[in-house]
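Check the record.
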Amino acid sequence: MKESWGREDHRKCTVPLGMMMLLIAAWSVLSLANQTEMALTLMNTEMSAIRTAVIQHRLALDIILAEKGGICKILNVSCCFYVPDEYENITNITKHMQDAIRPTPVADDSWGRPLQQTKGCERGVPQV
């Protein structure tokens, strides 16, 4: 066994270390995609509930103020009340995200075993 890492030893282990870094980056991107999809789903559900509440409150306000001409007359503005409903569009987008994202793999270190048996790396793969 060698006492120190020589230049040749380091070169022989560079590719496996690069592969490990690539796997770490891929895992990070997958995790970010999963979290983004979950956040969009939660926000979409929340926005749908808010939209329903706003429309209900507006209807109640219009009924209460109808004898005075409605809220638009009281505020002296021309009103056109519209709350866009993008629930279905966002749901479709998150569905496509779910289809594109594979299930998160189970933590398993067996993928690194072949890297530790790389020829010329007597000390195994350097730890990151």
